[in-house]
Amino acid sequence: MKTLYTKIVDLQSQQEEIEQAGQILREGGLVAIPTETVYGLGANALDGQAVRRIFEAKGRPQDNPLIVHIAQFEQLATLVTNIPESARLLAEHFWPGPLTIILPKADCIPSETSGGLDTVAIRFPSHPVARAIIRAAGVPVAAPSANLSGKPSPTTARHVLDDMDGKIEMIVDGGECSVGVESTVITLVGDHPVLLRPGGVTMEQIRTFLPDAQIDPAVEHKLEEGRRAASPGMKYKHYAPLAKVVMVEGNREEYVEYVNSQADKDVWALCFAEDEDKLKVPALCYGAQMDGAAQAKHLFDALRRFDELGAKTVFAHCPDRSGVGLAVYNRLIRAAGFTVVHL
């Protein structure tokens, strides 16, 4: 693959750089853009050749569908064949925001974008810079996380540079992402709504408006053998540092006792704030035990820091699975390759 000069722009200077990012996208280039969830690696969603460049830059499997980002609700009608009332209801309450809705795709969506499926995933981000770049591009933007496939997702421009320098035309630095994990994905194709990936919009919030919504088993478990992934983040090992991650499920005392029993084996801990002062191994804290939002915001940065620190094995304290905690659990269980110690 040709090595590119990757330009990094800080959005303090605003409009000129936004217009330049939009032009790069229109012309088939790749731009890493900030969103409220994680940084996305954007390309023109209607240009199959440009979208193929995303897969090449990330080393991403071709059957992994991408999320299409829009800058106004009216764009949705041009990208799908039908907008059910359930979609309008969710959009009214959660757009713009960290929610992706899967619907039957229109003919303008190339198979590269949909991962060969007859559906398309659409999101209307709340980050003002992301929306400004999409508007400047004049096209919907396909944008998975801007990291090498399988690695922890990027929540800062520095994370993107670590993975994408020389592979893409531009990185737009919009600061640290506020949510920190990818968007919630729900499919409205079928007999009832199904949550395929948890995120900043919780299942509890969705059920307020769609009481019949269900959670796909693949949210907490491996995807069934032979089943095709309908959403990003379902099929492959994701979010993993070079270090081996092991999830440890137990209360505070059990977790601390177990990790301390491994202290002679050169291990690290990914712990809650309440655990930290009781541990006898080096540790990174990713939030208080019942603060799922804080855990989500700090998770990927912590996983990347373990590699910087040379960690070989990391014992992660299993988060609560309610609210945003379900999203944190979903990311960690995949980072761990479903390796869990139950105490």
Structure overview:
The protein has 343 residues and is α/β, with parallel strands linked by helices. The chain has eleven helices and 16 strands. The strands form two sheets. The protein has an eleven-stranded mixed sheet with strand order 1-8-2-3-7-4-6-5-9-10-11, sandwiched between helices. Strands 14-13-15-12-16 form a five-stranded parallel sheet, with helices on one face. α10 packs parallel to α11. The longest helix is centred in the last third of the chain and has 17 residues. The radius of gyration is 20 Å and the shape is globular. The N and C termini lie far apart (47 Å).
What structural class results from the helix and strand content?
alpha/beta
What helical percentage do the residues reach? 25-40%
One letter per element, helices H and strands E, the order comes to: EHEEHEHHEHEHEHEEEHEEHEEHEHE
Number of strands: 16
Oligomer: single chain
**What's the average pLDDT?**
93
Report how far apart the termini are: 47 Å
Poorly predicted segments: none
What is the helix tally?
11
Short description:
By secondary structure, this protein is of the alpha/beta class. Helix content is 30%, strand content 18%.
List keywords for this structure.
five-stranded parallel beta sheet; 11 helices; 343 residues; eleven-stranded mixed beta sheet; alpha/beta
